Amino acid sequence: MSFFSHINHRIAPLAGIAILAASTLLAPAAKAGETLDKIKSRGLIKVGVGTTPGFFNPGSDGKWTGFFIDFGRALSITVFGTPDKVEFTNSSPQQRLPALQAGEYDILLSGVTQTVTRAFKLGFHFGPVLFYDGQGLLVRKDLGVTKGVDLDGATIGVQSGTTGELNIADFFRKTGKSFTPVTIEDTGEFVKALDSGRVDALTQDSTDLAGKRTQLKKPDDYVLLPERLSKEPLAPAIRGGDDQWLEIVNWTVYATIQAEELGITKDNVDSFLTSKDPSIQRFLGVDPSLGEAIGLDPKFAYNIIKTLGNYGEIFERNIGKGTTLNLDRGYNNLWTNGGLLYSPPFR
Ligand SMILES: N[C@@H](CCC(=O)N[C@@H](CS)C(=O)NCC(=O)O)C(=O)O
Predict the structure, then answer these.
(1) Which residues line ligand 1 at a C-beta cut-off of 6 Å?
(2) Cα(269) to centroid of ligand 1, in Å?
(3) Which CATH architecture best describes the domain 20-132?
């Protein structure tokens, strides 16, 4: 009998409902060009987002900022040449993918994990990974827990419709330990469940937990365990079938990574406009042939960098050292610095 056998057994039904709901939503694929046509006719990109501080901050005047938000702004720059033709709306993780499928969003930048089920079974496409994350555990300090297996018998809160549901079940099956899941859809309730002692721990993407920890009544009473239970490559998600939109998303993200690889920043980008290097001339649109060939504004990369900076600047400004989340680049560094970020060539 473990320490956690006091647990209440108000078990929300396991992942079943969310999986069932999600697996019935495979709708006809989008047609190539459809998304951009819709965006242009409404004059706005509709983006689904979350609420993790640092990644998504609504802002007092309704003007969103944040790491994922900046990629929504970058898309607006690629399509419209300006960062503000974009509308950010939050809904619960469970509702987002169905809403994307139904055409309520053009893209999700809400920390969606790229998985094979979501690609093949549910019919979504994913752009480049924006953030390499892993599932974590946020626990009450007074439990004295240091590893996931120490949570044998614990009650653990998990958000419905997330990859976290299956991951946490897999983890306990694999380790031969037991736990009681409390599946919660609403983000506010999810955080409250830990505050109120309804659960012993929360499991989610670790960065999301780092953000949620700051929203607890007494953040210092909780610890994010160092262990990661899964790989959570968080990528832009779009409806399958619209290759043109996928490529716009791909190269918008790559522009921020390529800029960092070249050492081009918000502040120094203008000095590169006179570069003699033909690849830099093509990248920044000084030589317009590349942009013309791909049907985008030849200056789209320049405009993104000039407005938002490169990937590293976007990272540092929103979630890096000195910010609330204070994150290291880790895997989210350039391949040349020991990370996983790599841009295919702009040629
Ligand atoms: N990566 C997981 C979890 C997605 C998720 O829950 N993302 C976080 C943001 S990184 C979130 O939306 N949390 C709830 C919220 O912010 O409202 C998945 O794709 O299923």
Answers:
(1) 50-52, 55, 90, 93, 110-113, 159, 162-163, 187, 204-205, 208, 232, 234
(2) 34
(3) 3-Layer(aba) Sandwich (3.40)
